[in-house]
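Dig into what follows:
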Amino acid sequence: MYTPSFAMTAELAMHETNARGGVLGREVELVPIRVGPHALRQVDELTGALERAQADGIIVCHDSHVRELVIDSLQGRAPVFYPPIWEGGAQRRGVICTGEDSGSKIWPAIRWLAEHASATDWMIVGTDYLWPSGTAIAVEPQLRAMGWWHGTHLVPYSLLDDLDGDERVVRQLVDAVDASSASCVLVLLHGSQMAMFNREFAVRGLDSRVLRFAPMADESVLLASGPETTQGLLTAFGSLRDGATVDGRDFLERYRALHGAIVPTPTGVTLAGYEGVAVACAVVERTGHLRPSSDDLASMREQGFEFEAPTGRVTVRGDLVERPMNLLGVDGIELVHIAALS
């Protein structure tokens, strides 16, 4: 889901930063380190990799569960920057999360759909790891308060020893929607699970009567799902089509100029690679330290700061992140702009 175009957008940010003279007079260098649930069984594996790379910080491009493992492993030894979508809430010491959360992405979309499409009967489905469960905890009370909530169904999920887990998870979630009276569903899945959900949804004919809002349904998910599965599917991202790009130039032109014409196209998800480098550089410049401390990061968040992402200016203030966001529909496997969200 996050590679290879996540890494390639990050490389573009590195290239452009260095072309402007780097950060604090130093060139930016990216060193890939493979981590995950298996790689973090021993606490010293990640810190050892960081020391061998002589790295000043880490940009995490995994899901929220692995992010927490990384933070616990580092124990404040280096700053952590987390640009992917996340569940929101209070940020831990030594960490800056800039990705979309329910406050900047999901709830504005639900509000808009309620006002403009009478979408007021919502069910929440997903798996029960940190991002879906944390997002459901944030969104469900708001839906309850409006009288729009028709249930939450989160399925326990592990693929570590179960190769058929995806199919079972998707069937259970679609069963729950099929049995519900809800006319709208917030789908907290991503990657191959989201594509499988779309296909099963269409096979059962639910796509003709139930609106799906899937905040992680990016271009790769649509391609994997197939054009016959995307009726009634909505998502939200900071769209490049609005022309809000770094330095006012076209992002995709710069991306292809660096990497060539035949490369993986960046998606609404993988643009976070560029953002991770951009926010790390902004923090280093502002603090004046190549390896900002946990106190430096806390002070930055408290005072507030801004940086430029591929889709426009992002403002971080406390635990709140403000960023351009657009509601998008789907035509076949193409995203179509519907409305700017605020």
Q: What stands out?
A: The longest helix spans residues 130-146.
